[in-house]
Amino acid sequence: MKTENEVKIQQEYMEKVKHMNDKSLKYTIVTMGCQLNENDSEKLCGMLEKMGYSKTQNQQEADLALFNTCCVRENAEDKLFGKLGELKRLKEQKGIIIAIGGCMMQEKHITNKIKESYPFVDILFGTHTLHKFPEDLYKVLQEKRKREDIIDIDGKIYEGLPIKRNSNKKASVTIMNGCNNFCSYCIVPYVRGRERSRQPRDIINEVKELAMQGYQEITLLGQNVNSYLKVERQKGIPFEEYEGIHSFATLLQAINKIDGIQRIRFVSPHPKDFTEDVIEAIAKCNKVCKLVHLPLQSGNTKVLKEMNRKYTKEHYLALVEKMKATIPNLTLSTDIIVGFPGETEEEFQDTLDVVKKVKFEQVYMFIYSRRVGTPGDKMENQVPEEIKHKRFNQLKTLVESQIEENNQKYVGTIQKVLVEGESKNNPNLLSGRTDSNKVVIFEGSKDLIGKIIELKIISQHMWYLKGEKDGKTK
Ligand code: SAH
Ligand code: SF4
Ligand code: F3S
After folding, report:
1. Full-prediction pTM beyond 0.85?
2. By alpha-carbon position, which residue is closest to atom 2 of ligand 2?
3. Which residues contact 209 (CB under 8 A, 6 or more apart)?
4. Measured from the CB, is residue 34 less than 6 Å from ligand 3?
5. In angstroms, rounded to a whole number, what is the distance separating the alpha carbons of residues 214 and 203?
6. Cα angle vertex 7, ends 6, 12, to 5°?
7. Distances (CA, A) of 338 to 34, 76, 351
8. Confidence of residue 474 (pLDDT cuts 50, 70, 90)
9. Residue pLDDT, tens place only, 250-307
10. Most buried residue, 33, 44, 108, 262, by CB count within 10 Å?
11. Gap between the Cα atoms of 109 and 114, Å rounded
């Protein structure tokens, strides 16, 4: 069946649920994991609101509790099971509908555990069946039976689902699903399937629509954004070349031309696919932020090989040099895993060495977590917990000292800041972000919200900068 027809069927289910529910109903949603999951949740919220539900933060008054899960590290599992324990009473008292979707549901051992230990859950759905949530909900409400809607084949790309975005200034746009890289620690390729890219025309139309609605910043999302359309090109899978788009570089160039959009970000690229055309496109496109997230994972060539990352320490450093030489004012952020199986003290020192050399703007640090079904889990030389923690703390100390040093460089400079809203900790102050994604807190009138303004940075604090308006608004 054509995807448009499948979407149409779901739209009919949305109407049916809306008519079934005569009173106004409420839902809660908990989203775990990455920005792709956040974007999926925005679609789930869009569908729920079309079905007559409205969002609440108060679990007690909710008629439906939805979880969009992640399984990239172990702690997400503990969080889900804890929440389900809490919900049991609400289920017994008022028959709240409980639905769980997302990456964790693609793991058999997890769904088995839920069915055994939390049999009161109503709907289980996976990453390839998200668009069918209206049908699943309708059937649960109508037939008063539980539903499990999980498939293990790559889901298609469904355009035209409703969406309820979290912000009215910044929007995420998923450009591709899945991952083909099979890094040996990572569960994502198993739960999200193979890489498949959205059609250029659909992405451009979505961004144009966002610009018309007044969105200023967009973030392009994928597990490996710089291999956008790569599989399609290599395997001869047909796609429509629209506005000259046939790769990630040409996509950036096309989006850069869309009036109204002021900032373009993207996560995550893979170092192995960081081709020259992508570097040049970042340099050339004035709206593309000069903060690039470039996941390192480890700074040691042997560990990188074991991780199946397909680059060496030297390749990574050379890539950084090349990018810095081509892209003026480039800053970098990264992801690092400590304690991958077999990682020795000496090999860990290579990671610290790369961190010292590159001086990242931001480092997302993770302790290696064994994932069932990945090659890493089967490796015999697992690193003991206390060593992993020791290395994590060592890395954290280094990163924090670098961030402080780096923040100091901002003091006295003028930065372009997109004003996002009131500061969370003090509603009398405003909060925004620089091109390099640093939070800036400053005093100003609320009509600046949504604008890009110039601020003078007057002081630095570990996680934010303080700014001062100098009168000019751009
Ligand atoms: N596709 C992206 C992000 C994947 S998940 C990328 O390749 O960069 C986000 C981050 O979680 C990864 O970059 C990695 O640093 C971390 N991660 C993935 N699997 C992990 C595991 N088993 N243990 C600890 N961290 C992990
Ligand atoms: Fe996981 Fe590697 Fe794919 Fe990223 S590129 S999602 S780390 S397998
Ligand atoms: Fe987690 Fe799935 Fe994202 S496993 S990190 S939510 S793709």
Report:
1. yes
2. 183
3. none
4. yes
5. 17
6. 95
7. 19, 18, 9
8. very low
9. 999 999 999 999 999 999 999 999 999 999 999 999 999 999 999 999 999 999 999 9
10. 44
11. 9
> Residue 371: CB within 6 Å of ligand 2?
no
Distance CA 250, CA 228 (A): 10
- Nearest CA, atom 19, ligand 1: 186
28 in Cβ contact with 44 (< 8 Å) = no
Based on the number of CB atoms within 10 Å of its own CB, is 376 exposed (0-12), middle (13-18) or buried (19 or more)? buried
Q: Which amino acid is at 229?
A: L
> Predicted confidence band at 222 (pLDDT cuts at 50, 70, 90)?
very high
Quote the CA–CA distance of 319 and 297 in Å, as a whole number. Answer: 15
Protein residue whose Cα sits closest to atom 5 of ligand 2: 181
**Cross-strand pairs, 293:** 333
Q: What is the mean pLDDT of the chain?
A: 95
User: Is the C-beta atom of 434 inside 6 A of ligand 2?
Assistant: no
Query: CA gyration radius for the chain?
Result: 23
Q: Which two tokens stand for residue 393?
A: 């703390």
In the predicted structure, residue 445 carries a pLDDT above the cut 90: yes
Q: Assess whether pLDDT exceeds 60 at residue 473.
A: no
